[in-house]
Backbone:
């Protein structure tokens, strides 16, 4: 028991990584699913263990192979990284339970164990991303998660050959992002000789405003921005989400970009925070705020004009990523906290929305669009009800988690920038009602186009679906856990700046 | 019993009625009795709550805290006590009436009807007793959603279209305008709780007041200010008991009540009157008031005419609130009561005429006075109250509104009120006049339903009684403006 507790930081990464090999060897698709469920559950339990351990200490530092940092690789769990760790492990557990029905529907049965292998690899990559404190190790995990996600997206080719193009796009653009990032890492290594985050943070300020440092920062942040799908670097995201197999969309939408945004915060505050008081440089800060506002509006407007419902949700994700980035780039503790609050809530919202939408498309045996789902809500009332709850949460109505995010984001924007930014946030969130209404109208009010098809509820997915809808309500009623941990995360992130 | 117990009793009673009604689907008599019984219990507790408020006790109940400055809580202010009395008291009458109506008209889905009727009252009472903006908003939305099945009750094409318009405008305005306004209030003050003197004083720059007030005034679509008034005529496709209780009392009064509460307990009378931030709202209310009266004249459909009359009367309340003088606010709160009693009488009559003689148009009513004398006398009394003739209740509120206009020195408002009174006389008294003095043009078989006639007459008598027993209400309205 003690050995487990001591090694929790690495266990959350290594469990899915190792089990992915076991899954690949299993012959039966049900076995592979059960193993994946167990793996993600155990990972989730380990994450919870880390969470409870963190109640007593500020920071858990883990030295991989007992090599002392900065020479060895260090894993750091602190108030900041515990948030994405918990999100990724919990959502991936829920998504894994949810997935089997759709895997069986959309992927050849003999490929399912291999798909679950990739699935666990992607989760391992994401968990690694958010635990490691070593910039190069981070690159490795970035690649593990990206490449396995690309392969997962490509699995959608049984339903639609376009999945291959989407995956190819994702691969190329993702590779560019990763290359940029690793160039940045190389530049920093060339002048500091270290890869450890806190060591970098210590050494970089001594160099002053150095062109190599600036270039390194630029490359790193641009590379990660591609991965995080910040507008206008988002082009890979809509098709990847839309053409991926249903359950893969759920997993990616709820977790993948969240990890990247967390890394943006890490790079800009933990590594570079002390160097050139990054976000105190008004031009740069304003530039990132501008990018986020653009993302908010562009994503929303693209979603309004979109007809393919999965792409619509993906565009809406682009907008929501804008909100999160906006909060983080405000560089005040309430701003960063609101970013983290929305990071959590958006994972719940988008996970729930994608789950209910793909569930409604289950019996159609083709890719879902707004029209092909016409009037389907009445046949699947429970699924539709979960959809509505998550949708209301997306629009930020009271008693849902989304309301809390909106509230804190507007507050942070008002405190640091003033009325105009408040107005823009409220306006774009009002615009999001248009596409929400568009979906509700199509799903509930339009006449049923699929009269001849047998469409009914899928009881197998009730548990994950209702659970995630419930969480959306619960975090809207009792938000103290989310807000408190986000505020303490924000404070420990901003320590780098305030020194 | 403690004050909080009465809040529970008052609010939970309609909720329990809502839950039990579907179980009694098979026992229609038992099911139908539930409504009036619930009304009596709710009304009884509303009276007790009012007594506590009059004695100056705090009637407060916090359900749960969401985060800093955010909670679901009830806190009864004098204004809320008044609205609670109106909603629960008239529920008794309307519940009896709707039994008669639904049976007489042989409507389908009666169980669904009665249960949603009860939950609408539940939402209205929660609005009345809400202690902060968040609670108000949540129950405001619940009220919209729970009345939708009632509006679309007939389930034909027209009722579905109207139902969508109804939901579209009410939900749309509340989410696009009201919710941002609430968020702004929280952002600049850090709290959403109502306070006797408002919470915005000292937090809001003077130049932003009209803007924030605009978000609130348009966000509360239930107050039916133009141009967001279309939902109210559309809602008239609902069975008449719905129009009577919900679209003359609960729903629309929830709207104007919210505006009053926001002006009194969020902005604060002193803060708003010093800054004159509500001048545009006075103008808009005057415009709505006159416009809808003129439209009402041209409406031949009886319920549509009453609907436009309601829009106009709601603007009286908004006007009173926007004048932000002590007397005007008192007038506005009295008008909530007076108009509710008067208008419910008129709607009761309209519904009774429809069920007993199947007449819906004003022009068809010529000469019908002899066959339905009691109903038309009730209509006459109700009209007089709405016009504001003593000794009907409506005269008090109009009197105070005019005094308020003088107090806040907007003399043109008095002219507007006078013109609108004349228009009221024209479009309301035309109906009993036609019924009694013109020759009959349509032969009808009239059947009498005592379950409908009794509440109608009682409501008509109430309009007179309320004129003489104004004292307790006056004490309450005095409390609203006392600091």
Residues:
């Amino acid at each position: 028991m003690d050995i487990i507790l001591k090694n929790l930081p690495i266990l959350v990464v290594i469990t899915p990584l190792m089990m992915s090999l076991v899954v690949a060897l299993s012959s039966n698709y049900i076995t592979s699913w059960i193993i994946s469920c167990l793996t993600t559950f155990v990972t989730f339990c380990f994450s919870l263990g880390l969470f409870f351990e963190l109640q007593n200490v500020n920071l858990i530092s883990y030295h991989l192979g007992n090599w002392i940092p900065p020479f060895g690789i260090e894993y750091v769990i602190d108030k900041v990284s515990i948030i994405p760790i918990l999100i990724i492990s919990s959502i991936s557990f829920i998504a894994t339970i949810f997935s089997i029905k759709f895997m069986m529907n959309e992927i050849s049965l003999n490929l399912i164990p291999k798909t679950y292998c990739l699935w666990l690899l992607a989760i391992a990559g994401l968990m690694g991303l958010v635990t490691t404190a070593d910039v190069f190790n981070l690159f490795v995990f970035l690649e593990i998660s990206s490449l396995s996600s690309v392969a997962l997206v490509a699995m959608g080719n049984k339903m639609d050959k376009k999945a291959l193009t989407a995956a190819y796009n994702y691969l190329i653009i993702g590779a560019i992002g990763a290359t940029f990032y690793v160039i940045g890492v190389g530049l920093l290594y060339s002048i500091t000789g270290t890869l450890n985050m806190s060591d970098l943070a210590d050494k970089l300020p001594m160099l002053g405003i150095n062109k190599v440092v600036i270039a390194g920062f630029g490359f790193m942040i641009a590379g990660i921005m591609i991965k995080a799908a910040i507008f206008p670097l988002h082009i890979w995201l809509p098709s990847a989400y839309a053409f991926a197999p249903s359950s893969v969309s759920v997993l990616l939408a709820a977790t993948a970009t969240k990890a990247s945004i967390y890394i943006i915060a890490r790079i800009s505050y933990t590594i570079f925070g002390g160097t050139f008081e990054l976000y105190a440089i008004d031009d740069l800060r304003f530039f990132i705020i501008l990018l986020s506002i653009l993302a908010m509006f562009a994503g929303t407007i693209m979603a309004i004009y979109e007809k393919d419902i999965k792409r619509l949700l993906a565009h809406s994700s682009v907008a929501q990523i804008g909100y999160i980035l906006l909060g983080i780039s405000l560089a005040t503790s309430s701003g960063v906290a609101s970013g983290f609050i929305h990071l959590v809530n958006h994972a719940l919202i988008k996970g729930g929305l994608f789950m209910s939408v793909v569930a409604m498309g289950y019996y159609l045996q083709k890719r879902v669009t707004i029209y092909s789902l016409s009037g389907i809500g009445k046949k699947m009332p429970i699924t539709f009800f979960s959809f509505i709850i998550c949708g209301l949460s997306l629009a930020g109505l009271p008693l849902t988690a989304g309301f809390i995010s909106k509230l804190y984001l507007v507050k942070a924007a008002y405190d640091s920038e003033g009325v105009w930014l408040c107005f823009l946030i409220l306006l774009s969130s009002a615009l999001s009602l248009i596409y929400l209404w568009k979906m509700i109208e199509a799903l509930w009010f339009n006449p049923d186009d699929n009269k001849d098809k047998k469409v009914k509820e899928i009881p197998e997915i009730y548990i994950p679906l209702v659970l995630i809808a419930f969480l959306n309500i619960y975090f809207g009623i009792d938000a103290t856990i989310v807000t408190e941990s986000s505020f303490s995360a924000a404070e420990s992130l901003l320590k780098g700046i305030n020194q | 019993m403690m004050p909080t117990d009465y809040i529970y009793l008052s609010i939970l009673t309609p909720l329990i009625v809502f839950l039990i009604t579907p179980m009694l689907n098979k026992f229609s008599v038992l099911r139908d009795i539930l409504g009036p019984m619930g009304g009596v219990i709710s009304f009884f507790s509303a009276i007790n709550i009012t007594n506590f408020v009059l004695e100056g006790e705090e009637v407060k109940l916090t359900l749960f805290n969401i985060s800093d400055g955010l909670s679901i809580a009830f806190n009864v202010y004098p204004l809320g006590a008044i609205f609670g009395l109106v909603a629960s008291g008239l529920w008794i009458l309307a519940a009896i009436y709707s039994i008669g109506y639904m049976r007489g008209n042989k409507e389908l889905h009666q169980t669904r009807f009665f249960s949603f009727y009860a939950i609408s009252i539940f939402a209205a009472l929660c609005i009345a007793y809400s202690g902060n903006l968040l609670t108000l908003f949540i129950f405001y939305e619940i009220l919209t959603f729970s009345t939708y099945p009632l509006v679309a009750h007939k389930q034909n094409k027209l009722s579905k279209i109207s139902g969508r318009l109804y939901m579209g405008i009410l939900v749309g305005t509340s989410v696009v305008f009201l919710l941002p306004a609430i968020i702004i209030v929280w952002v600049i003050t850090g709290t959403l709780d109502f306070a006797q003197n408002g919470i915005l004083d000292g937090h809001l720059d003077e130049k932003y007041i009209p803007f924030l007030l605009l978000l609130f005034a348009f966000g509360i679509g239930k107050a039916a200010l133009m141009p967001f008034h279309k939902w109210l005529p559309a809602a008239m496709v609902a069975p008449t008991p719905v129009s009577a209780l919900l679209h003359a009392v609960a729903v629309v009064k929830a709207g104007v009540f919210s505006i009053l509460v926001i002006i009194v307990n969020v902005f604060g009378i002193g803060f708003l009157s010093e800054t004159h931030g509500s001048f545009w709202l006075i103008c808009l209310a005057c415009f709505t008031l006159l416009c809808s009266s003129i439209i009402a004249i041209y409406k031949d459909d009886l319920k549509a005419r009453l609907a436009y009359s309601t829009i106009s009367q709601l603007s009286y309340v908004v006007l009173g609130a926007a004048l932000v003088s002590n007397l005007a606010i008192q007038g506005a709160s009295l008008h909530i009561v007076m108009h509710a009693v008067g208008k419910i009488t008129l709607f009761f009559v309209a519904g009774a005429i429809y069920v007993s003689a199947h007449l819906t148009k004003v022009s068809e009513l010529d000469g019908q006075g002899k066959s339905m004398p009691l109903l038309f006398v009730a209509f006459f009394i109700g009209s007089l109250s709405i016009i504001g003739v003593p000794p009907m209740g409506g005269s008090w509120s109009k009197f105070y509104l005019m005094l308020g206009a003088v107090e806040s020195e907007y003399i043109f408002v008095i002219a507007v009120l006078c013109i609108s009174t004349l228009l009221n006389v024209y479009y309301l008294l035309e109906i009993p006049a036609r019924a009694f003095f013109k020759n009959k043009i349509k032969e009808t078989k009239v059947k009498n339903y005592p379950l409908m006639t009794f509440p109608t007459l009682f409501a008509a008598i109430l309009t007179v009684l309320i004129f003489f027993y104004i004292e307790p209400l006056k004490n309450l309205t005095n409390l609203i403006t006392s600091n």
Notes: The CA atoms of residues 323 and 409 of chain B lie 9 Å apart. Chain B touches chain A at residues 64, 66-67, 70, 134, 137-138, 141, 164, 172, 175-176, 179-180, 183-184, 186-188, 208 (CB under 8 Å). The first strand of chain B starts at residue 60 and ends at 67.
